[in-house]
Specification:
Length: 146
């Protein structure tokens, strides 16, 4: 399970390194159709291409989401911004012990196509990834992602 979470997180981070902004007209029809069917109330949608996949970032009822889809419109993973209080206690304890007084700026829950959950926290320009139990996986800087 840990290996799967690590592989998923690593693939996600690697793909983020190659993200390119897109105009909606550049997104394949099957991807747009699937997105529109699943997220009818999405607002302020922004598209990016990540290698061979497409990511939509959007809002629903003042919550920030993103969804990663393949070229056929199949969901590969979803990401939901969550409150810091919604993080597992183990994540908050890790940050307290290992991030010398830094505070978590943002938190997200990431669910892959198989239902595996990872958590991501942003702390001083770096993303920390944790498995579903709150165990630390890896750290990535924001600069490296772009």
């Amino acid at each position: 399970m840990k290996k799967l979470a690590l592989i998923t997180a690593t693939a996600m981070i690697t793909s983020l390194s190659f993200a390119q902004g897109l105009k909606e007209k550049e997104v394949p029809t099957p991807v747009k159709a699937s997105f529109q069917k699943l997220y009818t109330s999405a607002k302020e949608t922004k598209w990016e291409k990540e290698k061979d996949n497409y990511e939509a970032e959007f809002e629903i009822e003042d919550k920030e989401y993103s969804v990663l889809m393949d070229v056929s419109g199949n969901i590969l993973e979803t990401e939901l911004e969550i409150s810091i209080d919604a993080l597992p206690a183990k994540v908050k304890n890790y940050v307290l012990k290992n991030c010398s007084g830094q505070k978590i700026k943002e938190a997200s829950k990431i669910t892959d196509v198989n239902g595996n959950v990872t958590y991501e926290t942003e702390i001083k320009g770096k993303d920390l990834l944790f498995d579903s139990n709150g165990n630390f996986i890896e750290q990535e800087s924001e600069k490296k992602k772009k």
